[in-house]
Amino acid sequence: MGSKLWLVPAPSYLPAAAGWDADEDSPGPRCGHTLTAVAPTRTRGPRLILFGGATAIEGGASGIRLSGVTNSVHSYDVESKKWCRMHPAGEPPSPRAAHAAAAVGTMVVFQGGIGPAGHSTDDLYVLDLTNDKFKWHRVVVQEPGPGPRYGHAMDLVAQRYLVTVSGNDGKETLSDAWALDTAKKPYRWQKLNPQGDKPSPRMYATASARSDGMLLLCGGRDASGTPLSDAYGLLMHTNCQWEWTLAPGVSPLPRYQHAAVFVGARLHVTGGAVRGGRGIEGEGTVAVLDTAAGVWLDRNGFVTASSRSQKSSNDHDTSLELLRRCRHASASVGSQIYIYGGLKGDILLDDFLVADNSPFKLEIDSSMYNIDGTPSVASQKLNHSSDSEQQSLDSKPESVSAGSSLDQRSIAKLVEASTAEYEVASAVWQAAKEASERNVSDDNETSSQTNGKLESSSDSTDALAPDVRLHPRAVVVAKETVGNLGGLIRQLSLDQFENESRRMYPTNADQSYPTRKYLNRQKSPLGLHKKASHFHAS
């Protein structure tokens, strides 16, 4: 279809419809939390799970410290558009912020973070929503692993591997990557040694998995406090070898403490902070990496070296002002991108935003560009349409020049490789729902064994290592004892970690940072466009 060749600018965000029955059902102001989309179950539609974060701040001009760190769980029903405070059974994780979360079917896995007592443990906490019963499980993974850390990122790769990257362990900023195979028990972390263009140490980056098995690491802050703008794709080849590949194209402004989520082949990046903790403003608050074409786009179209340095006339766009924040969280359901909370200057936010990435709405609301950077025929026709035909997600792009240095031969390969991705992405949630129903059927067949064990583990006082299955075909094994983790937990306060004495006021002057080379594709010219293999449990 011709629409698959169009490059659409970043969408606009608007307040999302949301309600609640009681005061506690509203998540309230917070930052440093996670927002995770969970697949539909047999009886419920997709939901967003909001966990943890800081609900208060302390300090003033000398620096802001996060406080009021919580372990509360809130669920947003996408169909009913209502928030609800959940009180899951089982042992909950400790209060934490700057942790990482990833969805595994109808479960959400949490790792790391930092709380009032310092680092969280290295254990995985699983929030199980199967059969619409919220239940906590604590999974102890023995042998070496990522270790306690915060400001890291984690996601499920190829629907099987939990991969965690970067962060800070209290001693140094990290660049390592670890993977856990959810189809094999007992669970073990494997330290990866990927080939290719390895990313530098960083924290407060994002790592988002594309549906075909690529993990995209974006932005972050290095050990010196310099914000980063580069992006790297992590792929697993058929020989089980992992490889990092530097993303092509001119990336948007450097940032950290931003949010990013995939919709199809498009990575949607919002908000973030720059040096000194000052929030990103104007056009830089939103960007999209089209991994199928290998180009970055903002609200005006292609991101180029010159457009990055120019101040846009849309700086006072209300939708852009809504996105001026950091330490927020985002998730996607179908074509919808959701954002909750964050920190804006010295103000904690409790707003809930949404944007639509569906091709139909974007074709109506945005100017579109062909792969060579010229306006598409459909875009030219839309520019002559009446105002009554414009929808709520209006963007007002200016004329731009082609910012991609991809040659025509490479472009042809990218378009060919990306065609299937768009088709697959549109059916992701339907497939997830069918898989969930199959899982429920499998569980019913073994209810006298597996489900009995899960119920008994939640009722027992020893709920540290329940027989929870992260993968539908994982082998259930006996419980394991918890090792001595005392030496791993650093009793350090939040002002040493989460704040690090950074000013968060938007009036702070931004310091200069070195210019990086953004278009280095000598080693892997088409790295991000390789088709990663799909993995199935045997």
TrEMBL record:
Residues 376-394, 446-461 have a biased composition (Polar residues). InterPro entries: Kelch-typ_b-propeller. Residues 528-538 have a biased composition (Basic residues). It comes from the Eukaryota. Residues 375-405, 435-465, 505-538 are annotated as: Disordered. This is Serine/threonine-protein phosphatase BSL1-like protein. It comes from Iris pallida (Sweet iris).
